[in-house]
Amino acid sequence: MEAAQHQTQNPGHSFGGLRFYSNLIMVPSILKPLTILFFIFLFQQLSGGYVVIFYAIQVFQITGGNFEKDFDEYDTLVIMGLIRCVLFLNSLTYATYIR
What we know:
The protein is mostly helical. It has helices at about 1-10, 20-25, 30-45, 50-55, 55-65, 75-95.
């Protein structure tokens, strides 16, 4: 009972306290990878790749392209998705097995 009262009086020293997590993040072995990931995600969002995917159908319709009679802009979008999936699996393989 006394330990529970002590923990509620000092929430910063508990395992789930905000101070615990802020001190945990400031450790260089955690802060450096988090910073790198933050900038990778930031550049990924600002590069416009998701905008291209979102508007791909309209771009294919506007440009016209030389689509065959059984191949339209929707099929092209599926091909783009498959290419992205293959490249993701390729990156995953490299990240997992090559060190």
